Amino acid sequence: xxxxxxxxxxxxxxxxxxxxxxxxxxxxxxxxxxxxxxxxxxxxxxxxxxxxxxxxxxxxxxxxxxxxxxxxxxxxxxxxxxxxxxxxxxxxxxxxxxxxxxxxxxxxxxxxxxxxxxxxxxxxxxxxxxxxxxxxxxxxxxxxxxxxxxxxxxxxxxxxxxxxxxxxxxxxxxxxxxxxxxxxxxxxxxxxxxxxxxxxxxxxxxxxxxxxxxxxxxxxxxxxxxxxxxxxxxxxxxxxxxxxxxxxxxxxxxxxxxxxxxxxxxxxxxxxxxxxxxxxxxxxxxxxxxxxxxxxxxxxxxxxxxxxxxxxxxxxxxxxxxxxxxxxxxxxxxxxxxxxxxxxxxxxxxxxxxxxxxxxxxxxxxxxxxxxxxxxxxxxxxxxxxxxxxxxxxxxxxxxxxxxxxxxxxxxxxxxxxxxxxx
Length: 423
Fold this sequence. Notes:
There is one protein chain. By secondary structure, this protein is of the alpha/beta class. The protein contains 18 helices and 8 strands. The protein has helices spanning about 5-10, 70, 95-100, 115-125, 145-165, 170-185, 185-200, 200-210, 210-220, 230-245, 270-280, 285-290, 295-300, 330-350, 355-365, 375-380, 390-400, 410-420, and strands at about 30, 35, 45-50, 55-65, 85-90, 105, 315, 320. Strands 1, 2, 3, 4, 5 and 6 form a 6-stranded mixed β-sheet that branches. It has a two-stranded antiparallel sheet with strand order 7-8. α6 (about 170-185) runs antiparallel to α14 (about 330-350). The model has no long low-confidence stretch (mean pLDDT about 95).
């Protein structure tokens, strides 16, 4: 038993019976269990009880042991002056201060099903994929579980985007550029690609995006790849970059994306060329993304994108390879849509379109589920993952609840703990 678990059981009223009596044998009727307080002060506020014929309103404090009242120095803290009930798992001492104020003490040990403690201990001490793996039941997934998780994730992402918007003077197009660069960088180069994008005033991108070669030259030059040209095309990009840098007074900044442990199709040379092509092909990219009202329209934005012709025969500068157009795979497109496009659409619309949440969730449902170690883990537990709404939900839930062993705030854990029969 932990104090947090005790608070959880009190808050959700998970008891074998409610025939409460204080340690002196007087009946205690809980009219209101109070509001769970996660800040400083008593654990439950604005509670109401009836005992000895009197109805009393005030706050309730919970402890594992009665003696914790003394150890926590509550008698000297004015925040605890309005305590009407001291609730403990085990009454191990008489508290004179409370007795003198006629504050009853309620012991809960015999009111709590021991199987709940067994289940909770198995959860928090487990080392499996999820803490409740041994007692997990796919049928215990609550209604709207996936929708709730994805909306939480969208709200978190939206807060990050709003900070970025504040930094960049509410320029949604610039923030989209930074976010797309992050996605195109994948895990290895995500942060580096964002740095590259943020180092360029977006007004410059807008001015040169009609010239794909110049846009590529700008990205390649900032990446430090044009100092020593290895062929005629690289030399041309170098001249373009020097012209652009001088024309727009671009600082002499060099960032270095990584190639190590990347498959050739994910080399930063290829991904930056594809990013340049995306902005060259769609002069009104932001508008197209924001107005897209179904998943096919979003696919149409990204499916034509490919690296420039030079990269049909190259993965890196100066090294010729067999012919292979470097297009965007469906999996990559869906990754960009999930991680960048949908969060930005949600952020843009959420203050003036009441239906945007439902519309975004519907887009998630029409995208294939991600396949990774986390979704495989859920599959192994008998939970079928049907679409990206469910995969995004389960990945988010695993990260924020399962890895953190935050079982008491988990809606699945709540259902499992309430089940009193052994599994």
